[in-house]
């Protein structure tokens, strides 16, 4: 009788929502990606989803919400409950660029989102058509000073555009800018030589260089990229040059700290696995496991640096 009475007294307490609720996560998680399927951002979002699924034991659904440089996806995440079940694949656009590029991006990247963890860093690659007859940065600069060249990039105001503009400014050249909405449209013109050179994320252009269809002129990282050490860094010719793309997961402001901690631990565990490192290496990316504080420090620094470049070239998306 005493045991039954204790059980009856305890029953209301066990039914209390705060006590009955299972720890996060206890249902599927969504990751919103602000670009179409198949690009670098999408590939890294799917990799993050796979890691979280394996480490947390819950399915992760990737939703592509392209438009306005990822602003549509970012705004949708910000409107979602801050409970850890709707996350955003953060990119240079959402984390640093769009606040300067749009008159009203609809969010403050440094205060409206909580960083969880970086996933990977990706350099951009400047590549030229073989018919141009140049194989390195000094050769391209010399030719560009002899005659006006044309160049493409894959996202107005994005890291590829800023990489191309910083190169133009630091090299002291003029060139005809041909903007494209993504990698595939640019390749339609770059591969047959209708434009002279282009800048794209390393993972989406490197196979064209490996096949010989394009010539890798220079990577946009501060040093040569480990997966393509034969391609020089632009900074070897133009000291101080550097523009890379960094990606990670963020959550809407107000997400419980314990969710951030657990999601960070899951990503870090998955990113150091040899198979993950190898997969990223194949894509031309480098894993960036780290703390939320490290992620935010990069966001703050790049927000200031890229904002200054955007003001200098005078580009606006609206």
UniProtKB/TrEMBL annotation:
Belongs to the UPF0065 (bug) family. Gene3D superfamilies: Bordetella uptake gene, domain 1, Periplasmic binding protein-like II. It comes from the Bacteria. Keywords: Signal. It comes from Sediminicoccus rosea. Residues 1-20 form the signal peptide. The keyword Magnesium does not apply. This is Tripartite tricarboxylate transporter substrate binding protein. Pfam families: TctC. PANTHER family: BLR1237 PROTEIN (PTHR42928:SF5), TRICARBOXYLATE-BINDING PROTEIN (PTHR42928).
């Amino acid at each position: 009788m005493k045991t039954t009475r204790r059980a009856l007294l305890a029953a209301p307490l066990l039914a209390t929502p705060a006590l009955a609720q299972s720890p996060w996560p206890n249902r599927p998680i969504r990751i919103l990606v602000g670009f179409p399927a198949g690009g670098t951002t999408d590939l890294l979002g799917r990799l993050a989803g796979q890691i979280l699924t394996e480490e947390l034991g819950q399915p992760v659904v990737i939703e592509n919400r392209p438009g306005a440089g990822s602003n549509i996806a970012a705004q949708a995440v910000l409107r979602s409950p801050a409970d850890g079940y709707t996350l955003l694949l953060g990119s240079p656009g959402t984390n640093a660029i769009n606040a300067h590029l749009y008159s009203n991006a609809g969010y403050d990247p440094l205060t409206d989102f909580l960083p969880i963890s970086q996933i990977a860093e990706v350099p951009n690659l400047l590549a030229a058509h073989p018919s141009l007859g140049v194989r390195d940065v000094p050769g391209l600069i010399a030719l560009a000073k002899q005659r006006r060249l044309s160049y493409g990039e894959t996202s107005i105001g994005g890291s590829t555009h800023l990489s191309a503009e910083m190169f133009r400014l630091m090299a002291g050249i003029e060139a005809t800018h041909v903007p494209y909405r993504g990698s595939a449209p640019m390749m339609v013109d770059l591969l047959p030589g209708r434009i002279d050179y282009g800048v794209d994320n390393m993972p989406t252009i490197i196979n064209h260089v490996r096949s010989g269809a394009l010539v890798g002129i220079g990577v946009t990282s501060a040093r040569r990229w480990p997966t393509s050490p034969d391609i020089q860094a632009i900074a070897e010719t133009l000291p101080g040059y550097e523009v890379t793309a960094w990606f990670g997961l963020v959550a809407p402001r107000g997400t419980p700290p314990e969710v951030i901690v657990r999601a960070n631990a899951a990503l870090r565990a998955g990113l150091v696995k040899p198979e993950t490192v190898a997969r990223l290496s194949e894509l031309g990316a480098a894993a960036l496991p780290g703390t939320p504080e490290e992620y935010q420090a990069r966001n703050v620094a790049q927000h200031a640096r890229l904002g200054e470049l955007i003001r200098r070239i005078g580009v606006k998306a609206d």
